[in-house]
Amino acid sequence: MPKLKVMIGNNQKKVKLPKGIRPLVRKCCQAVLSEENFTDPAEVSVLFVDNDEIQKLNKLYRSKDMPTDVLSFPLGENGVYDINNETGARLLGDVVISMETALKQAKIYDHSLEREVGFLTVHSMLHLLGYDHETTPLEAAKMHEKEELILEDLGITREQEFTDIQ
């Protein structure tokens, strides 16, 4: 298993972070790298924000003036990543998750907030590795299949409660 450093920050106060959310995010990031046979040491940052903050970022970087659930900011292209000169780790990029939207979507899909954050983390990590569901329907299907496979491997299914995977 490659060495992975996941830096997690919380810049919002509107949704209480569930106990165990940080280890869950780390497990999801590691699972994506394992599934993709990514063997180099890597670093990624994950930031929890509110809808106001993610809307600002969505407007600035995607010209979409509305909140979204997750944004991915890859630092690599075609498998080539910037390197942390001190550690030699590949800098994969940044993940920004709106906890307000994640909570709303968890209610809509009738599953736990943890499952939703796990899904958003896996989804965004795949983006950092070059997957893009917005290019073609085939790419969207491939990405969706990967997401569900990884979540299933982690024991995070729609039917299971979060306590089943700890």
Explained architecture:
The protein has 166 residues and is α/β, with parallel strands linked by helices. The protein has five helices and six strands; from the N terminus they run E-H-E-H-E-E-E-E-H-H-H. It is globular and about 40 Å long. It has a single domain, classed as 3-Layer(aba) Sandwich (Collagenase (Catalytic Domain)). Strands 1, 2, 3, 4, 5 and 6 form a six-stranded mixed beta sheet that branches. Helix 1 runs parallel beside helix 4 (113-128), helix 1 (21-35) crosses helix 5 and helix 4 (113-128) crosses helix 5 (137-153). Helices cover 42% and strands 21% of the residues. The protein has helices spanning 21-35, 51-62, 99-108, 113-128, 137-153; strands at residues 4-10, 42-49, 70-74, 76-77, 80-83, 90-98.
Offer a concise description of the structure.
The chain has helices at 21-35, 51-62, 99-108, 113-128, 137-153, and strands spanning 4-10, 42-49, 70-74, 76-77, 80-83, 90-98.
Question: Features of this protein?
Answer:
166 residues; alpha/beta; Collagenase (Catalytic Domain); disordered C terminus
Write the layout of secondary structure elements.
Blueprint lengths: L3 E7 L10 H15 L6 E8 L1 H12 L7 E5 L1 E2 L2 E4 L6 E9 H10 L4 H16 L8 H17 L13
Parallel strand pairs: 1-2, 2-6
Antiparallel strand pairs: 3-6, 4-5, 5-6
Distance between the termini: 20 Å
Identify low-pLDDT runs. 160-166
Number of helices: 5
Q: Compute the gyration radius: what is it?
A: 15 Å
